[in-house]
Amino acid sequence: MEKSIYLLPGDGIGQEIMTEAVKILDWVRREGLLSMNLTSGLIGGTAYDLTGTPLPEETVTAAKAADAVLLGAVGGVKWESLDYAVRPERGLLGIRKALDLYCNLRPAQVFPQLANASTLKPEVVAGIDIMVVRELSSGIYFGQPRGVETLPDGRQKGLNSLVYYTDEIQRVARRAFEIARKRQSRVCSVDKANVLECTELWRNTVIALSGDYPDVALSHMYVDNAAMQLIRNPRQFDVILTTNMFGDILSDEASMLTGSIGMLPSASLGEESALYEPIHGSAPDIAGMGVANPLAMILSVAMMFRYTLDQPALADRIERAVNLVLDAGLRTADIWEPGMQKVGTASMGDAVVAALSA
Ligand code: NAD
């Protein structure tokens, strides 16, 4: 059956890297490996300029109808003085909410060819392959009550609430167990159950659910220790499952172990929808110059084939092609080092397509 892929290039380098992602999708179609229907729409600053809103209604409708959404990036200096309600970033938050994307996957993998890019010693980061599974639609970022109020005595009080319901914990934990089964079958659930009652519920709910996954080894870690262990011995982790705020912080920490923001894909999954995007932003400093690294976007395409389109062989093939290109010494400016061949965005995309057929 034909799959529908909805493309949202967005702003800045989002447009350039999406062009390279489409080259990969076109290759898959040319080879007759999967039938796909590609359509594209507007989001972010580009959408604001053309329609007056960063998230037009048509975009939401089309995204909901698609099997998967591929997103470039949003934002840029041009729109920074706009009211918060119509800033490009609102488009991104809005579409995550509209599609009820509750499970964020952020892999942190060190390509051996790029082990020197990390600020940590190559022997510490070599071989790391971590998947952070972050709850994305609940927790302290959404809990009520919240706000800042002025008290009768003139002091101000700031309040946010950490709230989780068992079903919210169960649905993201199920995803983590299922993903672990496709990897090394280990889940480390990160919480602060020694201090926060809400995360004690998190821990107990994950333990109760683990009975359904006897083949997956479950461990638990407090978030402060997890932050430390990620730097001390990152190879110990396979899948890290955690709450919205802890995941926000730990996934950035884990991705920086690799040292190369232009290499990192991500996925946000709901029950009915899925959105794939690189973790980086629109990089206004290099937009339009043809030098952006398209590999995070291309690896996001690989994740889409693995997690939504049920095409693990195609995902493997794209990841292998990226490895071949790196083996051949091709590097965009952000990952270049002396002795390597510096290439632009389009040449890197073309090289991956060529390697797909190799
Ligand atoms: P950024 O990720 O856009 O850029 C940070 C640095 O990394 C820049 O020096 C940039 O040139 C470089 N970089 C990023 N991606 C690269 C790539 N593929 N190839 C080569 N170099 C790359 O973060 P920022 O500068 O903090 O934010 C710029 C804009 O992007 C802001 O408007 C911000 O709100 C937005 N943003 C959007 C997203 C998103 O769309 N998901 C995420 C983060 C930031």
Describe this structure in words.
It is a single chain. The protein is α/β, with parallel strands linked by helices. It folds into two domains: 1-102 and 270-358, Isopropylmalate Dehydrogenase (3-Layer(aba) Sandwich); 110-134 and 156-260, 3-Layer(aba) Sandwich (Isopropylmalate Dehydrogenase), CATH 3.40.718. It has helices at 13-30, 44-51, 57-65, 88-98, 122-125, 166-181, 197-210, 223-232, 244-256, 295-307, 312-327, 345-356, and strands spanning 3-10, 36-40, 68-73, 103-109, 129-135, 147-150, 156-159, 186-191, 217-222, 239-242, 265-269, 274-278, 330-331, 341-342. The strands form three sheets. A ten-stranded mixed sheet has the order 2-1-3-12-11-4-5-10-8-9, with helices on both faces. β11 (265-269) and β12 (274-278) form a beta hairpin. The longest helix is centred in the N-terminal third of the chain and has 18 residues, at 13-30. The protein is globular. The protein binds nicotinamide-adenine-dinucleotide. The site of nicotinamide-adenine-dinucleotide (NAD) has 21 residues, from α4.
